[in-house]
Please model this.
Amino acid sequence: MQPDAPTPRLAELAQAHGVATEYWNWLGHHVTVPAASIVAVLAALGVDAADDAAVEAALADHADAPWRQTLPPTVVTRAGRPHPVPVHVPAGSGVRVSVELEDGGRRELAQVDRWVPDRVVDGAPVGRAAFELPDDLPLGWHRIVADADVTPLDPASTTATLVVTPERLELPGESAERRVVGLMAQLYQVRSAGSWGVGDLRDLAELASWAATSHDADFVLVNPLHAAEPVVPIEASPYLPTTRRFVNPLYLRVEDIPEAGTLDPAARRRVAELAARGRALNAGDRIDRDASWTVKREALELVFDAGLPPERAAELAAYCAREGDGLLRFATWCALADAHGLPFTAWPEELQDPDGPAVAAFVAEHPEAVDLHRWMQWLLEQQLAAAQDEAETAGMALGVVHDLAVGVHPVGADAWGLGDALARGVTVGAPPDPFNQLGQNWSQPPWRPDRLAEQGYAPYRDMIRTVLRDSGGIRVDHILGLFRLWWIPLGASPAEGTYVYLDHEALVGILVLEAQRAGAVVIGEDLGVVAPNVRDVLVERGLLGTSILWFEFDGDRVRTPEEYRELCLSTVTVHDLPPTAGYLTLEHVAVREGLGLLTRPVEEEREVEEASIGRVRAALAERGLLAADAGVEDTVVALHRWLARTPSRMLAVALPDLVGDRRAINQPGTHEEYPNWRLPLAGPDGEPVDLDDVRSAPLAGPLFDALRGD
Model:
């Protein structure tokens, strides 16, 4: 045993809580996780493993824990399958179990003969009975209720959440009958003459309408639109939001708010001045979210202060009632941030508890400050719905497809409002891989699997529902995270982390249920180091995977188009790589060299990449798709023709490829060293372009035609 390897009992405890003690890395080497990493990850799960005595106590507690509860906190099953439910009661007592259905009906459950010996727990004998869920329960969110003859073991555990999920998600609408072709865009890059320095939801509607009417596109896949901080400075990364349930008001188009057209003259003049300042930001060679939000926030407040007519006020009230406590908490956090700044960890201690009396008093004393942020979320829902409606009206089969980020900011709204549903003392990331050889730390707290189950998966469900509302689909970034996530103890390097396994049957099942109810497609980003069963589960449950042409190699051999998956979104590039023209000219090598991110000499890195690209070129030439003397633009088109020969049900072209941009929007493993997420859309010369330039891009027609095999 290596000196820092876990003891057998520590390894047993880790495995009991879904914490990996070993894995195979990207080089094919077996790695034993250091004991210190395991202890730190267990601590983040609320398990003390500091020494041998603590490990023994934790193992005993884990064995007894289910016997202390009458019912498990949540049961997730698939429609059409019977499912046993264990029930614990004081030994010798009787119990009746029923299901309260989502629609108000009730079903009594039958007990089944599965004898298990009684167990002494906390000095008292406890018995276990088994009841079976029938195979004809309807899809949805139900509740299991246990009525014991005596005082239950734990009164709080006499009810449980029951989720009945579809066996499989079927592709919606036209996408079930034919391949669909679309566009991938980072919305904040898509600036127009009407933008205030950042692409907004009006720009999204117009981009979708153009792509549909001019190029028969079926969808636009956009970056996560999740909410950022309500005060400057604003986090640039759309993949590090403050919450994933709500939307960033930076994407609002002020002029599209009905009440903006009825302001009094003074307010109207001020909004016009702010609009002019906002539009002037379009000329910058960097996206300045802080400046854009400063002018847009003032304009939004002017519109908010003008009030609503009765009918619109009633609609807002209905929206607030529907979104309930989750919206109220988020809006409260925003209002507190307005008053006290960020991070919330610097607020007065009594305001750091969202359930405390000080926070309740703040809401009572500042109702308009809270309502401002609820109002903005209501407007966002309306403008998102309008964008989707325009996309569908223009002929898109799916319309807007949203991106779901992996996690949230460690001191954001969710970290404040969701309490211990998020783990503390660790962050999420990725182990070293060929493209990020030092590994990645995404600085995000992960879900605690045990707490999610105890809360009936409500935070996860509510997040999924919001993203799916008024959309044609959802791309789940790093869908591997529904199976296992790479947890990194605070202060450790990414290489010192380990995998924590989640209940993928529950998480994937809930995703399938909510997507079916929304009539949406689900795309799982399954790149990188993938657990062996992930892709099998995606196919089984009807979820699409993701294929990036540059990653489709079998050793040194380029995979043929026929070898691509059918249930898949296939593209040439992705937002963590340069646009295709940049990749062909080794932009990714130059950037990583300049930032010191290479783990081998640049000459060797360049040689390896040139050889890889050369093999792809040769494969294109062999199929008659590329001439020997082809330039960069012809090669970009040929790569998309290659995708057209795959069986993949979804194909997409990246918006930067239409205009010839060569710069990566993000360089993983960097923060301020590279202008991640701050580069506006640009042409081959690096000069910013706007939505009008996109409409007239010479490559737009050839690339969409290439994806269709024309």
In short: The chain has a mean pLDDT of 95.
